[in-house]
């Protein structure tokens, strides 16, 4: 009988209590808590983004990670409702962190445009995002960056699994008790560099930065 890693995680978290539960969580590489859908309380407003394009219309090359330039995005939030935008390139797992003033779509789009435009055009093909209203102004983002935005299905965080995993690792680099709005863009860039220089098993123990350089060289 085969048992998935998710079944094992869930069994441990359900049965463990107190100090044992904290000890088990500590030894997990991402130090994550029990997974819950981020969309369990989603209301109809999230489905009313004008001009939203479904992930099912995304070109196949994005799904198979064949070429660089396809990104996933999300927001990391703290208990005080301040946020940092994260973008992860699907082939290399290179991470961008963008300082944003708030969760409103104007602030989020401004932060994403600023950071994405630092990359050359051949590394800016498409972005997969959830159905959140923070990217309601996706057309403005696309006009400014030439990056087409595709939306995940409701209650389907695994459709952006690369970003979900990266966000868990990111929290290891954030100072406990520090509000996200206190980080400058320079500080966020340094954290992103540490993530991008960290070897990954899934990349054959290459770093995301090295993997991106390899991928770019192979396509030119």
From TrEMBL:
This is Transposase. GO terms for biological process: DNA integration; transposition. Pfam families: rve. It comes from the Bacteria. GO terms for molecular function: nucleic acid binding; transposase activity. NCBIfam families: transpos_IS30. Residues 64-216 form the Integrase catalytic domain. InterPro entries: Integrase_cat-core (IPR001584), RNaseH-like_sf (IPR012337), RNaseH_sf (IPR036397), Transposase-Integrase (IPR051917), Transposase_IS30-like (IPR053392). GO terms for cellular component: cytosol.
